Amino acid sequence: MIQTRTQKQGPHRKTIVNKEMNLGLNKDSKSFSPSALFQEISDICETVNEVNSTKELLEISLKRILDLFGAQRGSIFILDDNQTHLTLNIAIGKDNTEKDNIKRIGEGIIGKVAKSKEPIFVKDISQDKRFRNYKARKGYQTASFLCAPLMVKDKLIGVINITDKHTNEHFHNDDLLILDFLTSQIALNYKRVELYHKFRIKTQNLQDKLGKSDKEALHLKKQIHIHERLATIGKLTGGIAHEFNNPLDGVMRYTNLCLDHMKEDEVVRGYLLEIKYGLNRMANIVKNLLACSRNESEGAQSIHFSQVLNHSLTEVQTCLAGKQIEIQKQIQPDLPTVKNLGLERVITNILRNAIDAIETEGKITVSAKSGDTHLIIDITDTGLGIEEEELDNIFEPFYTTKDIQNGCGLGLTIAYEIIKNYSGKIDIGSTPNQGTTFTISIPFEEPGTEDE
Question: Could you tell me the pLDDT band of residue 382, with boundaries at 50, 70 and 90?
Fold first, then answer.
């Protein structure tokens, strides 16, 4: 929609209407009939209405205006945020750089137009009484020019300057009417684009905040859900442990007695060993349930990683039965101690997972080294690996890819909670059919805190 600007003062602020004017445009190389002229103006307005970039808006506007007036040189200055200077935004012409890229309000022709907020037409600056002290700048073909402010209501946006017609003829008063109208359209669209970008920034910031809030809310909801499940487990396991552990302990004791009285070559001995293996797994599940629900730590004693690893390897010996798995240790000597908050349980649970991931034959590598302030542990297996979509859920309670008889999905949950108590970090990387690596980082014990 084309909008017009009118002022009570000033002979040039007239509303453009459908009446014939003695336009200087008709004398130029580009000749327009009144209807063609208004169509050209309408096309310019329609074009600038569709632009959503201030730079593109000013470039298109200046090019189309120069083309409309048959002019070779023009520039647009934009008012700075402090409203004391005008800065060159775009210039077109033979010498497309202005002598001064910054104009002060009230100084020079552009500065005076900005201060008065009124357009001016100069037929010949050398003969214009208003500019006795001004001379036509070298490089200009003519001493005639148009200069108009870009205004939205009473607010100045910038100033446009047009000079040097292709025909070397001077401009006319009617040219200023057209330019004055077009500047109002440019200014309105400049403000529109500014508001559009401010709106986009505000919207994007709001979306980012909402997205962040949604993500935090989902994470919090997930944590609440996990803790609710763990609380439920705690209520159940307190009673189950006593009712389950006592008969389990008796069955295991009698199984061991039977094995002591069995000969090595008896078939029944093999059955008893399978029973013992199953009983050990049952005992471990109860132990994990209790540890997960109580979130207990082993205490504040100091411990060396080599000691932790040896205990864990002893713990998983029964899991290695029937498999050809090489366990390789790469432990940096003289590692500082760490607090005993349950690291052995973490290593044991990860080793069990690694052993279960290897079907018959493979290798598990355990490495430990000193970082600046942290112990860095890597446990790598050559097992089946984990699918990418499953990695995000690997530390959730009861999430498991194993058969029901091989685990309840609490081992890695416990490991995660223990490492969190250390203020440490645990990461997992895996490639299906190639293997998995767990990387653990926990802080060393601070000097002077080790127990005597």
Answer: very high
Tokens coding 270:
């093999």
Q: pLDDT, tens digit, for every residue of 274-323?
A: 888 778 767 766 666 565 555 554 455 788 999 899 988 988 888 888 88
**For residue range 50-63, what is the model confidence (pLDDT) as tens digits?**
777 888 888 888 88
Give per-residue pLDDT as tens, 401-449.
665 455 556 678 778 888 888 889 999 999 988 899 999 999 987 655 4
CATH code of the domain covering residue 306: 3.30.565.10
**CATH for 130:** 3.30.450.40
Contact predicate 427/438, CB 8 Å: yes
Listed residues 147, 170, 199: the one ending a domain: 199
Q: How far apart are CA 142 and CA 131, in angstroms?
A: 15
Number of helices followed by number of strands (H, E) in the chain: 9, 13
> Torsions phi, psi of 312, nearest 5?
-65, -40
- Identify whether residues 312 and 181 lie together within a single domain: no
Look-up of token digits 């003062």: 9
> How many domains would you assign to the chain?
2
**Side-chain-facing half-sphere of 206: CA atoms under 13 Å:** 6
Q: What is the dihedral of CA 238, 243, 245, 249, to 10 degrees?
A: 160
Q: What angle do CA 398, 394, 313 make, to 5 degrees?
A: 90
Backbone angles phi, psi at 70, to 5 degrees: 65, 35
Q: How far apart are CA 237 and CA 249, in angstroms?
A: 16
User: Among candidates 332, 51, 335, which has minimal Cα distance to 190?
Assistant: 51
pTM score, two decimals? Answer: 0.42
CA atoms within 13 A on the CB side of 369: 7
Q: How far apart are CA 400 and CA 139, in angstroms?
A: 81
Q: Where are the alpha helices (DSSP H) in 358-441?
A: 388-391, 411-421
User: What's the token pair of residue 192?
Assistant: 């529109």
Query: How far apart, in Å, do the first and last CA atoms of the chain sit?
Result: 86
Q: Which of 37, 69, 54 is nearest to 162 (CA)?
A: 69
Length of the chain measured in residues: 452
The chain-wide mean pLDDT, for the chain, equals: 77
